Amino acid sequence: MNPYLSAPITxxxxxGEARRKAYARLGxxxxxxxxxxxxxxxxxxxxxxxxxxxxxxxxxxxxxxVSTECRISRIKGRMNLxxxxxxxxSGVCEITFFNQDYLRSAFPLGAAFRFYGKVxxxxxxxxxxxxxxxxxxxxxxxxxxxxxxxxTEGLSQKIIAANVSQALSFVANMEDTLPxxxxxxxxLMTLSWALKQIHLPDDYQSLHEAKRRLAxxxxxxxALALGTMGKTSRTTGAPVCxxxxxxxxxxxxxxxxxxxxxxxxxxxxxxxxxxxxxxMSRMLVGDVGCGKxxxxxxxxxxAVRSGRQAALxxxxxxxASQHAADLLPLFEKMGIRGALLTGHTTxxxxxxxxxxxxxxxxxxxxxxxxxxxxxxxxxxxxxxPALVVTDEQHRFGVSQRAVLSExxxxxxxxxxxxxxxxxxxxxxxYGDLDVSRIDEMxxxxxxxxxxxxxxxxxxxxxxFIRKNVAExxxxxxxxxxxxxxxxxxxxxxxxxxxxxxxxxxxxxxENTEISFAEHQPDMRAAVQFAQELSVRxxxxxxxxxxxxxxxxxxxxxxxxxxxxxxxxxxxxxxxxVGVNVPNACLMIVENAERFxxxxxxxxRGRVGRGHRKSYCILVKAGxxxxxxxxxxxxxxxxxxxxxxxxxxxxxxxxxxxxPVNGGEIRQSGGFRLQVAExxxxxxxxxxxxxHARAILSEDPVLGxxxxxRKELENAFTMAGDILN
Length: 724
Description:
The structure is a single chain. With 724 residues, the protein is α/β, with parallel strands linked by helices. The chain is built from 23 helices and 24 strands. The strands form 4 sheets. Strands 13-14-12-15-16-11-17 form a 7-stranded parallel β-sheet, sandwiched between helices. The protein has a 6-stranded parallel β-sheet with strand order 18-24-23-19-22-21, sandwiched between helices. The longest helix has 28 residues, at 204-231. The chain is globular, with a radius of gyration of 29 Å.
C-alpha cells in the first residue's frame, strides 16, 4: 500500500490541529479517508446559458466578458463592495463581491470568465452576487462538473478541494485490491482513475464510469464481508431446546386466535432448529401485520420451557415498549417472568434487571427480557442464555447482533423483518440464515385501498383528512425530506443522480448541452409541511417526526400518536418501521414518485391494522411515465415479494441496502455504502455478488488475497475476528 495513503490527514498542507479535529468529525483521519470522502453533489457549471435565457433567481453558469474596471465603494458597517460589469451577446450583468478588495485586479478588461451563481434581473440589467468564477477560453474548455463536499464547522469547500487535490497526487501508485481479471471482465476503470474522476470529473461520462467502478467495489466488499461472516455463523454447543406437543398447547391455548398455516409452519421450523445443538440462524420475513411477533413469542416460550432465557431486541424504544406491552402479559399468564430494558429504564430498575438476568436460582431469575440497544450495555449478562430475537434486523449492524450473541454464548438466533427482500439479494444479505416466509395474513386483516393522485386533488385530500379525523381516525402524512432544500443546494446534481433514466439525470450525448434545472419538483419537507397543515387545519392536532430528532423526542411523538393525542402525524420514512396504531386509517405519501416500491409497501402497512376502513393515497408530483407505471404497480399489487422484485428491477438495490432518514443505517457491519446506495442497475450488484461468491468458494478466508483481506478487516469491525 502507498504509505502516503495511510498517513494522517495532518500530512497535507494547511491541516493543523484545528482542521484535524474538524476532519475527524467527518470520519476523515488519513489521506485515504479523504479520498473516500466523496462529493455529496456537483454544480453543473457546464450548462452555460445566455443571460437572456436564465430564469430570475436560477443558479447557472454564464460566460461573460468584463466591460468595466472594478470599483470599490464603502457602505455602513465597514463593508466594502467591489463591482464591475460584464456582458454576453444577450445582455449586461453587474457583478458584486463583498469585502473582497483583493479581487480588484482579478478581472481585467476584455477577459472572459465562466461565472456560476444565482442570476437576478433588475429592469433590463442582470446582477450576480459573489459568483464562483474561472477564466474562460474556447480553446481549453473548463470541466462541466464541480464537486460539492459534506462540510462541518472549520472546513470550507475551498479547503477540502485543495486538500483533495493534494491527496489525489498520491493515488498513482495506489494498490488496487480488486482482482485484475474481475476488473477487466467487467470493463471497470482502475481504482486510481476512478478516485480522480469522482472528485474531479472530466465530463459526465467519466463521472458515470467512476461511480460504476466505486459502486462495484462497495457491492463486492459488502458481499465478501457478509460471506465470510456466514462461514462461522453455525456454531455447535447451542442449548438444546425441545418441548412436547402437550407443552406447546399451553402456549397456543393462551392465544386469543388460531395461528395461520404460514405461522404454524414457521413455528414448526423454529422448533426443529432449536431442538438441535447447532445454533439456529433463521430469518422470519413477512408483510407488516402477518404475525411474525407471535412466532417469535413461540420461540421464546420454547426456550423458557426448556429451562433457559430469551432476549428480544428492537431498534427503537417505542417499538420495544410495544412488544413488551403485547408479550409480557401473555407470558405472565403462563408464569414466565419478563422485563423491559430501554434507555428510559431508571438506574434502579436497570440494577434489578441486571441482577435478575444473572441469578443462579431459577426461581429468582428473569426468563425473558425485551429491549433496545440497552441490551448491549456492559452490565447486561445472562445466566442461562438460549435465544436472541432481533426485530427489523436490517436496522442493526452485524457487530451489534454479535455483541448480543456474545452475551448469549452459542445462543439460537431468530431475526424478524417486515421488509420483503428479493431472492437474489436475500442470498447475499441473509445467506447465513434459513428463511421462513409468512405469506398468509391473519383472518380479518383488511386490504388498504390505494389511490394515485396529483396536486390538483389537494383540496379534496385535505377534506378527506378532516373526514377521517372527524370519524375518530388518525392520519399519517409521509414526506421524502426532513426540511426544505437549503438555498445553497439549489441546482446541485446529487452524487446518487440516476444517470440515463427517465425522470432522473440524462447522460448527454457528445456536443450537446443539458439542463438539470427543470427535472423533479422540490420535495415536500416534513417540518414545513406540518407547519402548513397546522395553519390550514387549526382544528386538528398536527405533529411531525423525523430521523434527525433525538430518540427520546421520537419516542415521545410516537407515543402521543399511539395514544390518540396527535391526530395527524407528518413524518419521514422513520415510521416505515414503527409502532402498531390500529386507529390509523389514512396514509398519505407526498412526492410518492421519490420512493421505492418496497418503501411504499412498508408505509402502506402502517394503516389497516384495526377495524376502520383504511386508505393509502400516493400524491405524485412529477417523474414522467416511468414513475406513473411504478405507482400503478402500487395501486394494483399487494404482494410484498412481487413488489420487491419489481422494485429491484426498476430502481436497483439502493432501497434495500441504503442508509435512510438522517443516518439510520440499513446495512450490516461497519461499512458504509456511498455510491452503491443509489445505483440503479441491479446487474452490477449481481455481478459483484457472483464474483464474491466465486472467490469465497475457492478461498473462504481470502488467504491468497492479502490486500483484499486487509481492506475488509479495516472496513468491517467484525471481519478481522472472523477472518483470523
